[in-house]
Amino acid sequence: MTITRQRPSSIHPVVMVTGGAGFLGSHVCDRLIAEGAHVVCVDNLMTGRRSNVAHLRSSPRFALIEADIATELPQIDVDEIWNLACPASPPSYQLDPVHTMLTNVMGMKNCLDLAHRTGARVFQASTSEVYGDPEIHPQVESYRGQVNSTGPRACYDEGKRAAETLCCDYQRTHGVDVRIARIFNTYGPHMDPHDGRVVSNFIVKALLGEPLELYGDGSQTRSFCYVSDLIEGFFRLMRTATVSAGPVNLGNPDEFTMRELAEVVIQMTGSPSKITVRALPVDDPKQRRPNIGLADTLLSWKPVIPLKEGLSSTIAYFCTELWLAQLDKEH
Ligand code: NAD
Ligand code: UDP
């Protein structure tokens, strides 16, 4: 297939962002547009929303192409490919597990093939899920993980592990410049209120005065990173001159139990909601916290937004989202 080589008459880079209409991808698009790049957002809108990039549509440097990266990637001459396409919440990636696996593997291969043909640098949004239910705590990049390859989370965990393998093989065999971020749980504006992740679930339920559902006894832990901190880490990783030193953990090392999170959300929203208990999903990791020593050394990066500060902006965002949804329903 031929590559569209005609470029905009500008010194600014042409950048493809797969999954650019999703939570994290839309923040990447924002920053790239602010930097002056030409941005081609490729998204099948499975979990992404047009509203996340609506404010960019008026920019002559922004284009949204509706396409499925598991099938085919638009062949455009690009300088960078940011691969964020993949549903990220357990309910959404388990909805069509075969497609999730193909998005991770075939989608990654399509990105790497395009990079090989154009010389583009590739950013891969990998995940702390590559560590599975970890026995090493906090998780360091050299830990190889404990993943159940046949369980309901495997389409995502093993898909992301295979994607990392492809990245490293294309780097070794074809010299493709890849940057792999192992992202730990991140939250903030542009999250879909209904995508099923814990921060959005808890805040939305609390704002609606409905019970917050704690899966299991709530003693499992996660470490939550505010989106602006994560995006800063992304750009430092992508823009460092250092040739990739392998995957880099990006996340906030402050660790909380899910019960603590539920209590903080109820307190911060002033909600009358109660906490109810539901069965723990299969293979739900018991603990998760990043060791970010490598990101600190390589990128001089550390998150700076504490949980309560990040939750405060996120609660304000969800308030507006729920209000807009209510207006939509009534008018
Ligand atoms: P998200 O679900 O909000 O965004 C994913 C985007 O990818 C959506 O816009 C969706 O429509 C699109 N997409 C999915 N499959 C596609 C396909 N086959 N072709 C084209 N587009 C497709 O999720 P997010 O939180 O923004 O996550 C972005 C990336 O970061 C994902 O790859 C995810 O695995 C990774 N990640 C996120 C977190 C987190 O806490 N947010 C943690 C670890 C890893
Ligand atoms: N969780 C919960 N209530 C919810 C959603 C999730 O108690 O409404 C728990 C879930 O079982 C997990 C943790 O919160 O232990 C984080 O879940 P999430 O889906 O956000 O991310 P992941 O499991 O992928 O880290």
UniProtKB/TrEMBL annotation:
<keyword id="KW-0812">Transmembrane</keyword>
<dbReference type="GO" id="GO:0070403">
    <property type="term" value="F:NAD+ binding"/>
</dbReference>
<keyword id="KW-0333">Golgi apparatus</keyword>
<keyword id="KW-0520">NAD</keyword>
<keyword id="KW-1133">Transmembrane helix</keyword>
<keyword id="KW-0456">Lyase</keyword>
<keyword id="KW-0325">Glycoprotein</keyword>
<keyword id="KW-0210">Decarboxylase</keyword>
<dbReference type="InterPro" id="IPR036291">
    <property type="entry name" value="NAD(P)-bd_dom_sf"/>
</dbReference>
<protein>
    <submittedName>
        <fullName>UDP-glucuronate decarboxylase</fullName>
    </submittedName>
</protein>
<dbReference type="InterPro" id="IPR044516">
    <property type="entry name" value="UXS-like"/>
</dbReference>
<dbReference type="InterPro" id="IPR001509">
    <property type="entry name" value="Epimerase_deHydtase"/>
</dbReference>
<dbReference type="GO" id="GO:0005737">
    <property type="term" value="C:cytoplasm"/>
</dbReference>
<feature type="domain" description="NAD-dependent epimerase/dehydratase">
    <location>
        <begin position="15"/>
        <end position="251"/>
    </location>
</feature>
<keyword id="KW-0735">Signal-anchor</keyword>
<dbReference type="Pfam" id="PF01370">
    <property type="entry name" value="Epimerase"/>
</dbReference>
<dbReference type="GO" id="GO:0048040">
    <property type="term" value="F:UDP-glucuronate decarboxylase activity"/>
</dbReference>
<dbReference type="GO" id="GO:0042732">
    <property type="term" value="P:D-xylose metabolic process"/>
</dbReference>
<keyword id="KW-0472">Membrane</keyword>
